[in-house]
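Hello again,

I reread your note about wanting to compare the complex against the isolated chains. To keep things tidy I'm splitting this into two emails, and this first one only covers the full assembly. Below are the input lines as submitted, including protein chains and any nucleic acid or small-molecule components. They are followed by the predicted structure of everything together. The single-chain runs will come separately.
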Amino acid sequence: MSEQLGTLEELPQDYRDGMAKAGVAPLWPMMRNVLPHGAPNPQTKAGHWSFDAVRPLLLRAGELTPVEKAERRVLVLSDPGRGTGAMQATSSIYLGLQLLLPGESAPAHKHTPSAVRIVVEGEGGFTVVDGEKLPMLPGDLVLTPGGEWHDHGHEGSEPVIWLDALDLPLFVYLEGSYAIEGELQAQRNRPDASDVEYLASGLAPSRSTARARRYPMMRYPWARTEAALREMAEYGEGPLAELDYVNPETGEDVLPTMGFTAMMLKAGQVVSPPLRSASAAFHVVKGSGVSRVNGEAITWGPKDTFTAPVFADISHEAGEEAFLVRIHDRPLQDKLGYYEERAK
Ligand code: 1HN
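Full-complex prediction:
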Protein backbone atom coordinates (compact mmCIF):
# COMPACT_ATOMS: atom_id res chain seq x y z
CA MET A 1 0.00 0.00 0.00
CA SER A 2 1.55 3.31 -1.06
CA GLU A 3 1.59 5.96 1.66
CA GLN A 4 2.24 9.19 -0.18
CA LEU A 5 0.66 9.66 -3.58
CA GLY A 6 2.04 12.04 -6.18
CA THR A 7 0.77 15.62 -6.26
CA LEU A 8 -0.38 17.83 -9.10
CA GLU A 9 2.41 20.31 -8.39
CA GLU A 10 5.02 17.66 -9.13
CA LEU A 11 3.88 17.47 -12.73
CA PRO A 12 5.40 19.81 -15.39
CA GLN A 13 3.27 22.82 -16.29
CA ASP A 14 3.06 21.94 -20.00
CA TYR A 15 1.68 18.51 -19.05
CA ARG A 16 -0.89 20.08 -16.71
CA ASP A 17 -1.92 22.53 -19.44
CA GLY A 18 -2.23 19.67 -21.90
CA MET A 19 -4.46 17.70 -19.55
CA ALA A 20 -6.70 20.70 -18.86
CA LYS A 21 -7.06 21.32 -22.60
CA ALA A 22 -7.99 17.69 -23.19
CA GLY A 23 -10.50 17.76 -20.30
CA VAL A 24 -8.72 15.15 -18.16
CA ALA A 25 -7.07 15.13 -14.74
CA PRO A 26 -4.81 12.68 -12.91
CA LEU A 27 -6.59 10.52 -10.37
CA TRP A 28 -3.68 9.98 -7.98
CA PRO A 29 -3.55 13.46 -6.36
CA MET A 30 -7.32 13.23 -5.71
CA MET A 31 -7.63 9.56 -4.86
CA ARG A 32 -7.50 9.93 -1.07
CA ASN A 33 -10.22 12.62 -1.15
CA VAL A 34 -12.71 10.11 -2.49
CA LEU A 35 -11.27 6.98 -0.87
CA PRO A 36 -9.83 7.85 2.55
CA HIS A 37 -8.35 4.91 4.42
CA GLY A 38 -10.42 3.00 6.95
CA ALA A 39 -13.48 5.20 7.27
CA PRO A 40 -15.18 8.09 5.43
CA ASN A 41 -14.11 11.66 6.11
CA PRO A 42 -17.47 13.41 6.28
CA GLN A 43 -18.03 17.04 5.36
CA THR A 44 -21.05 17.03 7.72
CA LYS A 45 -20.47 18.55 11.17
CA ALA A 46 -22.66 17.97 14.21
CA GLY A 47 -25.43 20.58 14.38
CA HIS A 48 -27.80 21.70 17.13
CA TRP A 49 -30.95 23.74 16.62
CA SER A 50 -32.57 25.04 19.77
CA PHE A 51 -36.32 25.24 19.31
CA ASP A 52 -36.45 28.29 21.57
CA ALA A 53 -34.10 30.09 19.16
CA VAL A 54 -35.84 29.06 15.93
CA ARG A 55 -39.47 29.36 17.07
CA PRO A 56 -39.64 33.20 17.17
CA LEU A 57 -38.01 33.39 13.73
CA LEU A 58 -40.53 30.95 12.36
CA LEU A 59 -43.48 32.86 13.89
CA ARG A 60 -42.07 36.06 12.40
CA ALA A 61 -41.96 34.36 9.00
CA GLY A 62 -45.69 33.87 9.55
CA GLU A 63 -46.07 37.67 9.71
CA LEU A 64 -43.63 38.47 6.92
CA THR A 65 -44.49 35.88 4.31
CA PRO A 66 -48.03 34.72 3.57
CA VAL A 67 -48.23 30.99 2.86
CA GLU A 68 -49.31 31.78 -0.72
CA LYS A 69 -45.90 33.35 -1.27
CA ALA A 70 -44.02 30.47 0.30
CA GLU A 71 -46.00 27.34 -0.61
CA ARG A 72 -44.18 25.78 2.33
CA ARG A 73 -43.21 28.22 5.11
CA VAL A 74 -40.04 26.56 6.26
CA LEU A 75 -36.75 27.49 7.91
CA VAL A 76 -34.10 25.05 6.71
CA LEU A 77 -31.70 23.45 9.21
CA SER A 78 -28.37 23.68 7.37
CA ASP A 79 -25.40 21.43 8.14
CA PRO A 80 -22.73 23.61 9.84
CA GLY A 81 -20.11 21.76 7.77
CA ARG A 82 -21.68 23.11 4.59
CA GLY A 83 -22.85 26.49 5.88
CA THR A 84 -26.12 28.37 6.23
CA GLY A 85 -28.33 27.87 3.21
CA ALA A 86 -27.14 24.31 2.59
CA MET A 87 -30.21 22.28 1.70
CA GLN A 88 -29.15 19.41 3.90
CA ALA A 89 -28.53 18.68 7.57
CA THR A 90 -26.43 15.56 6.91
CA SER A 91 -25.13 13.85 3.78
CA SER A 92 -28.52 12.38 2.96
CA ILE A 93 -31.09 14.08 5.22
CA TYR A 94 -32.77 17.44 4.69
CA LEU A 95 -34.45 19.00 7.75
CA GLY A 96 -36.69 22.04 8.05
CA LEU A 97 -39.13 23.50 10.55
CA GLN A 98 -42.48 24.36 8.97
CA LEU A 99 -45.15 26.74 10.23
CA LEU A 100 -48.83 26.64 9.33
CA LEU A 101 -51.19 29.20 10.84
CA PRO A 102 -54.87 28.62 11.63
CA GLY A 103 -56.99 28.55 8.50
CA GLU A 104 -54.02 28.29 6.16
CA SER A 105 -53.39 25.52 3.71
CA ALA A 106 -50.25 24.49 1.84
CA PRO A 107 -51.10 23.50 -1.74
CA ALA A 108 -51.10 19.95 -3.09
CA HIS A 109 -48.08 18.61 -4.88
CA LYS A 110 -46.20 15.38 -5.33
CA HIS A 111 -42.50 14.93 -5.81
CA THR A 112 -39.79 12.35 -6.17
CA PRO A 113 -38.23 12.71 -2.67
CA SER A 114 -40.04 11.24 0.33
CA ALA A 115 -40.90 13.29 3.41
CA VAL A 116 -41.77 12.64 7.01
CA ARG A 117 -43.21 15.15 9.47
CA ILE A 118 -42.70 15.00 13.20
CA VAL A 119 -45.13 17.36 14.88
CA VAL A 120 -43.45 19.75 17.28
CA GLU A 121 -46.18 22.10 18.48
CA GLY A 122 -49.88 22.82 18.10
CA GLU A 123 -53.09 20.98 17.38
CA GLY A 124 -55.52 21.06 14.48
CA GLY A 125 -53.01 20.62 11.68
CA PHE A 126 -53.44 17.81 9.19
CA THR A 127 -51.80 16.42 6.08
CA VAL A 128 -53.80 14.79 3.31
CA VAL A 129 -51.91 12.04 1.49
CA ASP A 130 -53.61 10.42 -1.49
CA GLY A 131 -57.01 11.46 -0.09
CA GLU A 132 -56.32 10.17 3.43
CA LYS A 133 -56.59 12.88 6.07
CA LEU A 134 -53.86 12.42 8.66
CA PRO A 135 -54.37 14.40 11.89
CA MET A 136 -51.16 15.88 13.29
CA LEU A 137 -50.81 15.86 17.07
CA PRO A 138 -47.56 16.70 18.87
CA GLY A 139 -45.03 13.87 18.42
CA ASP A 140 -46.98 12.18 15.63
CA LEU A 141 -44.93 10.90 12.71
CA VAL A 142 -46.64 11.37 9.34
CA LEU A 143 -45.33 9.99 6.04
CA THR A 144 -45.65 11.57 2.63
CA PRO A 145 -43.85 8.98 0.50
CA GLY A 146 -42.30 9.98 -2.82
CA GLY A 147 -44.85 10.14 -5.65
CA GLU A 148 -47.88 10.60 -3.35
CA TRP A 149 -50.04 13.73 -3.55
CA HIS A 150 -49.95 15.71 -0.32
CA ASP A 151 -51.27 18.98 1.04
CA HIS A 152 -51.47 20.45 4.54
CA GLY A 153 -54.32 22.23 6.33
CA HIS A 154 -55.05 23.70 9.74
CA GLU A 155 -58.41 23.63 11.54
CA GLY A 156 -57.10 24.68 14.96
CA SER A 157 -56.64 28.03 16.65
CA GLU A 158 -52.90 28.17 17.43
CA PRO A 159 -49.85 27.97 15.15
CA VAL A 160 -48.75 24.48 14.18
CA ILE A 161 -45.07 23.69 13.75
CA TRP A 162 -43.55 20.46 12.54
CA LEU A 163 -40.14 19.12 11.57
CA ASP A 164 -39.82 18.02 7.95
CA ALA A 165 -37.29 15.30 7.13
CA LEU A 166 -36.72 14.50 3.47
CA ASP A 167 -34.29 12.37 1.48
CA LEU A 168 -34.00 15.41 -0.79
CA PRO A 169 -30.15 15.52 -0.91
CA LEU A 170 -30.09 12.12 -2.60
CA PHE A 171 -32.58 13.18 -5.22
CA VAL A 172 -30.72 16.43 -5.85
CA TYR A 173 -27.48 14.45 -6.21
CA LEU A 174 -29.17 12.11 -8.68
CA GLU A 175 -30.61 15.12 -10.55
CA GLY A 176 -33.93 13.43 -9.95
CA SER A 177 -35.71 15.98 -7.79
CA TYR A 178 -38.87 17.57 -9.15
CA ALA A 179 -42.49 18.27 -8.18
CA ILE A 180 -45.89 18.32 -9.87
CA GLU A 181 -48.56 20.68 -8.56
CA GLY A 182 -52.23 19.87 -8.22
CA GLU A 183 -55.53 20.89 -6.66
CA LEU A 184 -56.24 20.39 -2.93
CA GLN A 185 -57.40 16.81 -2.58
CA ALA A 186 -60.87 15.58 -1.77
CA GLN A 187 -60.63 13.89 1.64
CA ARG A 188 -62.12 10.48 2.25
CA ASN A 189 -64.56 10.76 5.11
CA ARG A 190 -63.01 8.23 7.46
CA PRO A 191 -60.25 8.03 10.09
CA ASP A 192 -56.72 7.29 8.83
CA ALA A 193 -55.44 3.70 8.63
CA SER A 194 -53.73 3.88 12.05
CA ASP A 195 -57.25 4.10 13.51
CA VAL A 196 -58.88 1.56 11.19
CA GLU A 197 -56.88 -1.27 9.54
CA TYR A 198 -53.85 -0.99 11.84
CA LEU A 199 -55.42 0.10 15.10
CA ALA A 200 -53.86 -2.80 17.00
CA SER A 201 -50.23 -3.80 16.74
CA GLY A 202 -49.95 -7.38 15.52
CA LEU A 203 -53.22 -7.27 13.60
CA ALA A 204 -53.49 -6.52 9.88
CA PRO A 205 -56.38 -6.82 7.41
CA SER A 206 -56.97 -10.42 6.33
CA ARG A 207 -54.76 -11.53 3.46
CA SER A 208 -57.84 -12.71 1.56
CA THR A 209 -58.51 -9.09 0.63
CA ALA A 210 -56.79 -7.16 -2.14
CA ARG A 211 -53.01 -6.76 -1.97
CA ALA A 212 -51.84 -4.26 0.64
CA ARG A 213 -50.90 -0.76 -0.44
CA ARG A 214 -47.21 0.03 -0.62
CA TYR A 215 -47.60 2.54 2.21
CA PRO A 216 -50.54 1.09 4.17
CA MET A 217 -50.16 3.29 7.26
CA MET A 218 -48.93 6.86 7.03
CA ARG A 219 -49.55 8.21 10.53
CA TYR A 220 -47.86 6.86 13.66
CA PRO A 221 -49.62 8.47 16.65
CA TRP A 222 -47.18 9.55 19.35
CA ALA A 223 -49.40 8.41 22.23
CA ARG A 224 -48.93 4.78 21.14
CA THR A 225 -45.20 5.17 20.56
CA GLU A 226 -44.70 6.65 24.02
CA ALA A 227 -46.85 3.97 25.68
CA ALA A 228 -44.89 1.23 23.91
CA LEU A 229 -41.54 2.76 24.86
CA ARG A 230 -42.58 2.99 28.51
CA GLU A 231 -43.43 -0.72 28.57
CA MET A 232 -40.14 -1.53 26.81
CA ALA A 233 -38.22 0.53 29.36
CA GLU A 234 -39.99 -1.31 32.17
CA TYR A 235 -39.98 -4.89 30.90
CA GLY A 236 -37.98 -5.09 27.66
CA GLU A 237 -34.69 -6.92 27.30
CA GLY A 238 -31.54 -4.87 26.97
CA PRO A 239 -30.59 -1.56 28.49
CA LEU A 240 -32.31 0.73 26.02
CA ALA A 241 -35.96 1.10 24.99
CA GLU A 242 -35.80 1.65 21.22
CA LEU A 243 -38.49 1.06 18.61
CA ASP A 244 -38.19 1.26 14.83
CA TYR A 245 -41.10 2.65 12.85
CA VAL A 246 -42.10 -0.10 10.42
CA ASN A 247 -44.59 -0.82 7.69
CA PRO A 248 -47.26 -2.93 9.50
CA GLU A 249 -47.74 -5.20 6.46
CA THR A 250 -44.11 -6.06 5.79
CA GLY A 251 -42.22 -5.20 8.97
CA GLU A 252 -39.78 -3.24 6.80
CA ASP A 253 -38.67 0.35 7.22
CA VAL A 254 -41.45 2.85 6.56
CA LEU A 255 -39.66 4.44 3.59
CA PRO A 256 -37.07 3.22 1.08
CA THR A 257 -34.19 5.46 2.20
CA MET A 258 -34.98 7.02 5.59
CA GLY A 259 -35.47 5.20 8.87
CA PHE A 260 -37.01 6.39 12.14
CA THR A 261 -36.26 5.02 15.57
CA ALA A 262 -37.90 6.23 18.78
CA MET A 263 -36.02 5.91 22.03
CA MET A 264 -36.75 6.50 25.68
CA LEU A 265 -34.06 7.44 28.18
CA LYS A 266 -34.78 7.27 31.87
CA ALA A 267 -33.63 10.16 34.05
CA GLY A 268 -29.86 9.82 34.47
CA GLN A 269 -29.56 7.05 31.89
CA VAL A 270 -26.41 7.06 29.76
CA VAL A 271 -26.24 5.27 26.41
CA SER A 272 -23.30 4.95 24.11
CA PRO A 273 -24.26 3.17 20.88
CA PRO A 274 -21.70 1.67 18.48
CA LEU A 275 -20.29 3.80 15.68
CA ARG A 276 -22.71 3.56 12.77
CA SER A 277 -22.11 4.13 9.08
CA ALA A 278 -25.48 5.92 8.92
CA SER A 279 -25.79 9.66 9.49
CA ALA A 280 -28.42 10.72 11.99
CA ALA A 281 -30.61 13.52 13.26
CA PHE A 282 -32.14 13.39 16.73
CA HIS A 283 -35.39 15.17 17.47
CA VAL A 284 -36.28 15.63 21.14
CA VAL A 285 -39.98 15.01 21.62
CA LYS A 286 -39.74 15.52 25.39
CA GLY A 287 -37.11 15.85 28.08
CA SER A 288 -33.60 17.23 28.32
CA GLY A 289 -30.05 16.00 28.49
CA VAL A 290 -26.56 16.19 27.06
CA SER A 291 -25.19 14.28 24.11
CA ARG A 292 -21.61 14.06 22.96
CA VAL A 293 -20.96 13.86 19.25
CA ASN A 294 -17.28 13.34 18.41
CA GLY A 295 -16.36 14.98 21.70
CA GLU A 296 -18.60 18.02 21.27
CA ALA A 297 -21.18 18.45 24.05
CA ILE A 298 -24.71 19.27 22.89
CA THR A 299 -27.07 20.32 25.68
CA TRP A 300 -30.60 19.75 24.45
CA GLY A 301 -34.09 20.49 25.67
CA PRO A 302 -37.62 19.67 24.52
CA LYS A 303 -38.29 20.12 20.77
CA ASP A 304 -34.60 20.65 19.90
CA THR A 305 -32.97 18.87 16.99
CA PHE A 306 -29.33 17.83 16.64
CA THR A 307 -27.33 15.88 14.10
CA ALA A 308 -24.38 13.52 13.86
CA PRO A 309 -22.28 12.65 10.80
CA VAL A 310 -21.52 9.11 9.65
CA PHE A 311 -19.39 7.01 12.03
CA ALA A 312 -19.78 9.62 14.78
CA ASP A 313 -18.88 8.66 18.33
CA ILE A 314 -22.18 9.42 20.07
CA SER A 315 -23.32 9.18 23.68
CA HIS A 316 -26.46 10.49 25.36
CA GLU A 317 -27.13 11.31 28.98
CA ALA A 318 -30.68 12.18 29.99
CA GLY A 319 -31.00 14.84 32.70
CA GLU A 320 -34.67 13.97 33.04
CA GLU A 321 -36.79 11.30 31.36
CA ALA A 322 -36.48 11.90 27.64
CA PHE A 323 -37.98 10.71 24.35
CA LEU A 324 -36.04 11.16 21.12
CA VAL A 325 -36.70 10.15 17.53
CA ARG A 326 -33.61 9.28 15.53
CA ILE A 327 -33.88 9.96 11.80
CA HIS A 328 -31.25 8.03 9.82
CA ASP A 329 -30.34 6.62 6.44
CA ARG A 330 -29.73 3.02 7.51
CA PRO A 331 -32.49 1.72 5.15
CA LEU A 332 -30.65 3.19 2.16
CA GLN A 333 -27.29 1.84 3.34
CA ASP A 334 -28.84 -1.59 3.91
CA LYS A 335 -30.10 -1.59 0.34
CA LEU A 336 -26.67 -0.56 -0.94
CA GLY A 337 -25.18 -3.37 1.15
CA TYR A 338 -22.75 -1.42 3.29
CA TYR A 339 -24.50 -0.47 6.54
CA GLU A 340 -22.02 -1.13 9.33
CA GLU A 341 -21.70 -0.82 13.10
CA ARG A 342 -18.33 -0.74 14.83
CA ALA A 343 -17.85 -1.45 18.52
CA LYS A 344 -16.25 1.40 20.44
C1 1HN B 1 -42.09 19.72 0.76
O1 1HN B 1 -42.86 19.15 -0.17
C2 1HN B 1 -42.64 20.03 1.98
O2 1HN B 1 -44.77 19.15 1.48
C3 1HN B 1 -41.82 20.59 2.95
O3 1HN B 1 -44.51 20.17 3.34
C4 1HN B 1 -40.51 20.85 2.71
C5 1HN B 1 -38.62 20.86 1.20
C6 1HN B 1 -38.08 20.59 -0.01
C7 1HN B 1 -38.84 20.01 -1.00
C8 1HN B 1 -40.16 19.70 -0.76
C9 1HN B 1 -44.07 19.77 2.29
C10 1HN B 1 -39.95 20.57 1.46
C11 1HN B 1 -40.74 19.99 0.47
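For quick reference: The longest strand covers residues 94-100.

B.
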